[in-house]
Design brief:
about 325 residues; alpha/beta; elongated
Amino acid sequence: MREREREREREKEISIIIPVFNEENNIKIIADRILQQLNNEDIEIIFIDDGSTDGTLQAIRSIATSSAIRYVSFSRNFGHQNAIKAGFDFASGSCIITMDGDLQHPIEILPKMISLWRHGFDIVHSIREPSTDQSFFKKRSSSLFYKIFSLCTSVPLQSGMADFRLVDRKVAEVCKNIKGEVFFWRGFIPWLGFQQTFINYKPAKRNTGSSKYNLKKMLNLAWNGISSFSTLPIRLASLLGTIGLIITFAYSIYIIWIKISGITIPGWSSVMLLLIFLGSINLIILGILGDYIGKIFLNSTGKPAYILKELNFSNTNKKRDIK
Protein backbone atom coordinates (compact mmCIF):
# COMPACT_ATOMS: atom_id res chain seq x y z
CA MET A 1 0.00 0.00 0.00
CA ARG A 2 2.75 2.45 0.91
CA GLU A 3 4.63 1.51 -2.26
CA ARG A 4 1.56 2.34 -4.36
CA GLU A 5 1.12 5.63 -2.55
CA ARG A 6 4.74 6.52 -3.27
CA GLU A 7 4.17 5.67 -6.96
CA ARG A 8 1.14 7.98 -7.07
CA GLU A 9 3.17 10.75 -5.50
CA ARG A 10 5.81 10.30 -8.19
CA GLU A 11 3.39 10.21 -11.11
CA LYS A 12 2.69 13.62 -12.59
CA GLU A 13 0.61 14.73 -15.54
CA ILE A 14 3.43 16.66 -17.23
CA SER A 15 7.11 15.76 -17.20
CA ILE A 16 9.70 18.25 -18.45
CA ILE A 17 13.07 16.71 -19.34
CA ILE A 18 16.08 19.02 -19.39
CA PRO A 19 19.47 17.52 -20.32
CA VAL A 20 22.26 19.76 -19.04
CA PHE A 21 26.03 19.80 -19.37
CA ASN A 22 27.99 22.55 -17.60
CA GLU A 23 24.98 24.87 -17.20
CA GLU A 24 25.32 25.72 -13.50
CA ASN A 25 24.25 29.35 -13.92
CA ASN A 26 21.05 28.47 -15.77
CA ILE A 27 19.62 25.77 -13.49
CA LYS A 28 17.72 27.90 -10.97
CA ILE A 29 16.57 30.41 -13.60
CA ILE A 30 15.00 27.83 -15.90
CA ALA A 31 13.37 25.93 -13.03
CA ASP A 32 11.85 29.10 -11.56
CA ARG A 33 10.52 30.24 -14.93
CA ILE A 34 8.93 26.86 -15.69
CA LEU A 35 7.28 26.63 -12.27
CA GLN A 36 5.99 30.18 -12.64
CA GLN A 37 4.70 29.59 -16.18
CA LEU A 38 3.01 26.29 -15.31
CA ASN A 39 2.03 27.04 -11.73
CA ASN A 40 -1.46 25.57 -12.22
CA GLU A 41 -0.21 22.31 -13.71
CA ASP A 42 0.79 19.01 -12.11
CA ILE A 43 4.39 18.87 -13.28
CA GLU A 44 7.78 17.40 -12.61
CA ILE A 45 11.05 18.85 -13.88
CA ILE A 46 13.74 16.23 -14.38
CA PHE A 47 17.25 17.55 -14.94
CA ILE A 48 19.57 15.04 -16.62
CA ASP A 49 23.12 15.96 -15.59
CA ASP A 50 25.21 14.60 -18.46
CA GLY A 51 28.49 14.29 -16.57
CA SER A 52 29.00 18.02 -15.95
CA THR A 53 32.44 19.08 -14.76
CA ASP A 54 31.42 22.39 -13.19
CA GLY A 55 28.92 23.08 -10.39
CA THR A 56 25.83 22.01 -12.34
CA LEU A 57 25.02 19.04 -10.12
CA GLN A 58 25.43 21.11 -6.97
CA ALA A 59 23.14 23.78 -8.45
CA ILE A 60 20.49 21.14 -9.15
CA ARG A 61 20.79 19.65 -5.68
CA SER A 62 20.29 23.09 -4.12
CA ILE A 63 16.87 23.55 -5.75
CA ALA A 64 15.67 19.93 -5.55
CA THR A 65 13.79 20.53 -2.32
CA SER A 66 10.33 19.50 -3.54
CA SER A 67 8.79 16.64 -5.50
CA ALA A 68 8.52 18.92 -8.53
CA ILE A 69 12.32 19.06 -9.01
CA ARG A 70 14.07 15.79 -9.70
CA TYR A 71 17.39 14.91 -11.21
CA VAL A 72 19.42 12.10 -12.68
CA SER A 73 23.21 12.33 -12.82
CA PHE A 74 25.44 10.28 -15.14
CA SER A 75 28.82 8.83 -14.22
CA ARG A 76 30.34 10.64 -17.22
CA ASN A 77 29.30 12.50 -20.35
CA PHE A 78 27.20 10.16 -22.53
CA GLY A 79 25.82 12.78 -24.92
CA HIS A 80 22.65 14.78 -25.41
CA GLN A 81 20.68 12.07 -27.22
CA ASN A 82 21.42 9.50 -24.50
CA ALA A 83 20.37 12.04 -21.87
CA ILE A 84 17.00 12.36 -23.61
CA LYS A 85 16.71 8.56 -23.51
CA ALA A 86 17.21 8.68 -19.75
CA GLY A 87 14.48 11.30 -19.55
CA PHE A 88 12.03 8.97 -21.29
CA ASP A 89 13.09 6.14 -18.96
CA PHE A 90 12.44 8.10 -15.77
CA ALA A 91 9.60 10.47 -16.66
CA SER A 92 6.25 9.62 -15.10
CA GLY A 93 4.04 12.15 -16.90
CA SER A 94 1.09 11.55 -19.19
CA CYS A 95 2.99 13.80 -21.58
CA ILE A 96 6.72 14.51 -21.73
CA ILE A 97 8.41 17.70 -22.93
CA THR A 98 12.10 17.71 -23.83
CA MET A 99 13.99 21.00 -23.96
CA ASP A 100 17.50 22.39 -23.58
CA GLY A 101 18.81 24.01 -20.43
CA ASP A 102 20.38 27.09 -22.04
CA LEU A 103 17.10 29.10 -22.01
CA GLN A 104 17.02 29.41 -25.79
CA HIS A 105 13.87 27.30 -25.94
CA PRO A 106 11.11 29.74 -24.92
CA ILE A 107 9.25 28.62 -21.82
CA GLU A 108 6.33 30.84 -22.82
CA ILE A 109 5.14 28.39 -25.49
CA LEU A 110 4.89 25.42 -23.12
CA PRO A 111 1.20 26.14 -22.32
CA LYS A 112 0.40 26.16 -26.06
CA MET A 113 2.18 22.83 -26.54
CA ILE A 114 0.23 21.34 -23.64
CA SER A 115 -3.03 22.75 -25.02
CA LEU A 116 -2.40 21.13 -28.42
CA TRP A 117 -1.72 17.82 -26.66
CA ARG A 118 -5.00 18.08 -24.76
CA HIS A 119 -6.75 18.70 -28.06
CA GLY A 120 -5.64 15.28 -29.28
CA PHE A 121 -2.15 15.61 -30.73
CA ASP A 122 0.32 12.90 -29.69
CA ILE A 123 3.45 14.79 -30.77
CA VAL A 124 3.96 18.56 -30.80
CA HIS A 125 7.14 19.56 -32.60
CA SER A 126 8.74 22.98 -32.43
CA ILE A 127 10.22 24.69 -35.47
CA ARG A 128 13.01 27.16 -34.85
CA GLU A 129 12.72 30.31 -36.93
CA PRO A 130 15.92 31.82 -38.39
CA SER A 131 17.83 33.94 -35.90
CA THR A 132 20.29 36.78 -36.43
CA ASP A 133 22.43 35.27 -33.67
CA GLN A 134 23.23 32.24 -35.81
CA SER A 135 26.35 32.42 -37.93
CA PHE A 136 26.12 32.18 -41.72
CA PHE A 137 27.90 28.81 -41.61
CA LYS A 138 25.51 27.41 -38.98
CA LYS A 139 22.45 28.49 -40.96
CA ARG A 140 23.70 27.09 -44.24
CA SER A 141 25.04 23.83 -42.79
CA SER A 142 21.81 23.25 -40.86
CA SER A 143 19.68 23.89 -43.95
CA LEU A 144 21.91 21.59 -46.00
CA PHE A 145 21.61 18.80 -43.44
CA TYR A 146 17.80 18.86 -43.46
CA LYS A 147 17.76 18.80 -47.26
CA ILE A 148 20.19 15.86 -47.41
CA PHE A 149 18.29 14.01 -44.68
CA SER A 150 14.97 14.45 -46.50
CA LEU A 151 16.60 13.30 -49.75
CA CYS A 152 18.11 10.18 -48.17
CA THR A 153 15.14 9.14 -46.03
CA SER A 154 11.35 9.14 -46.01
CA VAL A 155 11.21 10.82 -42.59
CA PRO A 156 9.22 14.11 -42.61
CA LEU A 157 11.94 16.19 -40.97
CA GLN A 158 11.42 19.92 -41.40
CA SER A 159 14.16 22.52 -41.30
CA GLY A 160 14.46 23.96 -37.80
CA MET A 161 13.19 20.86 -35.98
CA ALA A 162 15.31 19.81 -33.04
CA ASP A 163 14.72 18.19 -29.65
CA PHE A 164 12.27 20.73 -28.22
CA ARG A 165 8.98 18.84 -28.39
CA LEU A 166 6.09 17.29 -26.49
CA VAL A 167 5.18 13.62 -26.77
CA ASP A 168 2.27 11.66 -25.36
CA ARG A 169 2.78 8.82 -22.90
CA LYS A 170 2.25 6.15 -25.57
CA VAL A 171 4.98 7.72 -27.72
CA ALA A 172 7.32 7.87 -24.71
CA GLU A 173 6.71 4.17 -24.05
CA VAL A 174 7.93 3.35 -27.56
CA CYS A 175 11.02 5.52 -26.98
CA LYS A 176 11.71 3.78 -23.66
CA ASN A 177 11.80 0.39 -25.36
CA ILE A 178 14.41 1.40 -27.93
CA LYS A 179 17.71 -0.38 -27.27
CA GLY A 180 21.18 0.57 -28.37
CA GLU A 181 23.81 3.27 -28.03
CA VAL A 182 23.08 5.45 -31.07
CA PHE A 183 19.96 7.62 -30.92
CA PHE A 184 18.63 10.30 -33.24
CA TRP A 185 15.37 11.45 -31.70
CA ARG A 186 14.60 14.28 -34.12
CA GLY A 187 14.41 11.66 -36.86
CA PHE A 188 13.00 8.72 -34.91
CA ILE A 189 10.03 10.48 -33.30
CA PRO A 190 8.62 11.98 -36.55
CA TRP A 191 9.08 8.55 -38.14
CA LEU A 192 6.79 6.93 -35.54
CA GLY A 193 3.63 8.42 -36.97
CA PHE A 194 0.76 9.21 -34.54
CA GLN A 195 -1.03 12.56 -34.64
CA GLN A 196 1.63 15.25 -35.08
CA THR A 197 1.58 19.02 -35.31
CA PHE A 198 4.05 21.90 -35.33
CA ILE A 199 4.55 25.19 -33.54
CA ASN A 200 7.03 27.90 -34.54
CA TYR A 201 9.20 29.80 -32.09
CA LYS A 202 11.86 32.45 -32.07
CA PRO A 203 14.91 31.33 -30.08
CA ALA A 204 15.94 33.49 -27.15
CA LYS A 205 19.51 34.50 -26.51
CA ARG A 206 21.62 32.11 -24.47
CA ASN A 207 21.64 33.30 -20.85
CA THR A 208 25.22 32.29 -19.98
CA GLY A 209 27.90 29.97 -21.26
CA SER A 210 28.40 28.75 -24.81
CA SER A 211 27.01 26.06 -27.07
CA LYS A 212 28.28 22.54 -26.33
CA TYR A 213 27.72 21.43 -29.92
CA ASN A 214 30.99 22.03 -31.74
CA LEU A 215 31.54 21.21 -35.41
CA LYS A 216 32.66 17.66 -34.67
CA LYS A 217 29.57 16.89 -32.61
CA MET A 218 27.27 18.42 -35.22
CA LEU A 219 28.86 16.34 -37.98
CA ASN A 220 28.60 13.18 -35.86
CA LEU A 221 24.93 13.90 -35.13
CA ALA A 222 24.22 14.55 -38.81
CA TRP A 223 25.93 11.34 -39.95
CA ASN A 224 24.28 9.26 -37.22
CA GLY A 225 20.92 10.63 -38.27
CA ILE A 226 21.36 9.82 -41.95
CA SER A 227 22.99 6.42 -41.46
CA SER A 228 20.36 5.39 -38.88
CA PHE A 229 17.46 5.95 -41.26
CA SER A 230 18.83 5.21 -44.71
CA THR A 231 20.99 2.76 -46.63
CA LEU A 232 21.54 5.36 -49.36
CA PRO A 233 25.21 5.92 -48.36
CA ILE A 234 25.89 2.23 -49.05
CA ARG A 235 24.13 2.53 -52.40
CA LEU A 236 26.22 5.59 -53.22
CA ALA A 237 29.33 3.62 -52.26
CA SER A 238 28.28 0.91 -54.71
CA LEU A 239 27.73 3.58 -57.36
CA LEU A 240 31.22 4.97 -56.75
CA GLY A 241 32.64 1.48 -57.09
CA THR A 242 30.79 0.99 -60.38
CA ILE A 243 32.04 4.33 -61.71
CA GLY A 244 35.59 3.39 -60.71
CA LEU A 245 35.22 0.03 -62.49
CA ILE A 246 34.02 1.73 -65.69
CA ILE A 247 36.91 4.20 -65.60
CA THR A 248 39.37 1.36 -64.99
CA PHE A 249 37.94 -0.66 -67.88
CA ALA A 250 38.11 2.35 -70.23
CA TYR A 251 41.67 3.11 -69.14
CA SER A 252 42.65 -0.54 -69.71
CA ILE A 253 41.39 -0.35 -73.28
CA TYR A 254 43.41 2.85 -73.77
CA ILE A 255 46.58 1.19 -72.45
CA ILE A 256 46.10 -1.84 -74.71
CA TRP A 257 45.47 0.42 -77.72
CA ILE A 258 48.62 2.51 -77.22
CA LYS A 259 50.64 -0.67 -76.63
CA ILE A 260 49.43 -2.16 -79.92
CA SER A 261 50.01 1.14 -81.70
CA GLY A 262 53.60 1.21 -80.50
CA ILE A 263 53.14 4.50 -78.70
CA THR A 264 55.50 4.91 -75.79
CA ILE A 265 53.71 5.18 -72.45
CA PRO A 266 54.72 8.61 -71.07
CA GLY A 267 55.56 7.42 -67.58
CA TRP A 268 54.05 6.56 -64.25
CA SER A 269 52.10 9.78 -63.59
CA SER A 270 48.84 8.63 -65.22
CA VAL A 271 49.14 5.20 -63.61
CA MET A 272 49.68 6.68 -60.17
CA LEU A 273 46.73 9.04 -60.68
CA LEU A 274 44.50 6.10 -61.50
CA LEU A 275 45.75 4.10 -58.53
CA ILE A 276 45.11 7.01 -56.18
CA PHE A 277 41.61 7.47 -57.61
CA LEU A 278 40.68 3.80 -57.25
CA GLY A 279 42.30 3.58 -53.82
CA SER A 280 40.31 6.59 -52.62
CA ILE A 281 37.04 5.04 -53.82
CA ASN A 282 37.89 1.78 -52.03
CA LEU A 283 38.65 3.62 -48.79
CA ILE A 284 35.38 5.58 -48.99
CA ILE A 285 33.41 2.38 -49.55
CA LEU A 286 35.21 0.57 -46.72
CA GLY A 287 34.65 3.54 -44.42
CA ILE A 288 30.90 3.64 -45.08
CA LEU A 289 30.53 -0.12 -44.70
CA GLY A 290 32.67 -0.02 -41.56
CA ASP A 291 30.45 2.62 -40.00
CA TYR A 292 27.29 0.58 -40.58
CA ILE A 293 28.97 -2.56 -39.26
CA GLY A 294 30.25 -0.56 -36.28
CA LYS A 295 26.70 0.53 -35.44
CA ILE A 296 25.57 -3.10 -35.53
CA PHE A 297 28.45 -4.04 -33.22
CA LEU A 298 27.77 -1.24 -30.75
CA ASN A 299 24.08 -2.08 -30.56
CA SER A 300 24.83 -5.79 -30.04
CA THR A 301 27.27 -5.42 -27.13
CA GLY A 302 24.50 -4.87 -24.60
CA LYS A 303 26.22 -1.87 -23.06
CA PRO A 304 23.82 0.58 -21.41
CA ALA A 305 23.02 3.91 -23.06
CA TYR A 306 24.13 5.62 -19.84
CA ILE A 307 25.36 4.82 -16.33
CA LEU A 308 23.75 6.41 -13.29
CA LYS A 309 25.78 8.05 -10.60
CA GLU A 310 23.04 9.65 -8.56
CA LEU A 311 19.32 10.41 -8.57
CA ASN A 312 17.01 11.94 -5.97
CA PHE A 313 13.89 9.82 -6.42
CA SER A 314 12.97 6.17 -6.42
CA ASN A 315 13.40 4.43 -9.75
CA THR A 316 9.92 2.92 -9.80
CA ASN A 317 8.78 4.21 -13.17
CA LYS A 318 6.75 1.24 -14.28
CA LYS A 319 4.68 1.13 -17.43
CA ARG A 320 1.59 3.21 -16.91
CA ASP A 321 -1.80 2.63 -18.43
CA ILE A 322 -1.93 4.19 -21.89
CA LYS A 323 -5.22 5.92 -22.62
